[in-house]
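Case study 2.
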Amino acid sequence: MKWKVCGMRDLDNIQEVAKAKPDFMGFIWAEASPRYVGEDYIIPQEVLGETIAVGVFVDRSVASILALSKQAGFKWVQLHGEEGDEEVIALQKAGIKVIKAISVSDKWDLQGLSDLPDFYLFDTKKGKQTGGTGQRFDWNILEAYTLDKPFILAGGLSKENLEEAMELSKKYPIHALDFNSKIEVKAGLKDVQVVREISKRLAEK
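Prediction:
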């Protein structure tokens, strides 16, 4: 089971989290987020090791994302807005892997999905908030997902519900688990001890 730690920003915290070897690490370029890294942020690639950096966006233009990709240093993006097939195709043609986030509250949110994104990420829908709710959705809704494409599970994941989330992989094509607010000391700062515990438990499976 692969895993992702999202909402990173602080260099020392990144260094410590990277030692736990998550498969992905997310950096948020959305001004409304308390984990927004800022337009001049450069991802510290030298401390990530084999961890893949993911730029997280909400309704940014393709041109802006590509410019930040070169400046900040990422080849994967996670799109949390109203981006459609046109944006996905344009980013992929530029050599970017695309994770399309879908906010989920009922089975209809998983209907009619395009096969174009490299991965989907399913997160909890909460009004107009895009990601970072700290709440999980009803995982039974995943029964409505009919694509063969593996997806990333997000929304309120924690060490407390980790075992239950891992059990889901026996039933659904889960590529990775995405951890954010439930493993934080404060917004943008992860509890390193909790990260280590999650890493250990995932490695044992």
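The chain has six helices and ten strands.
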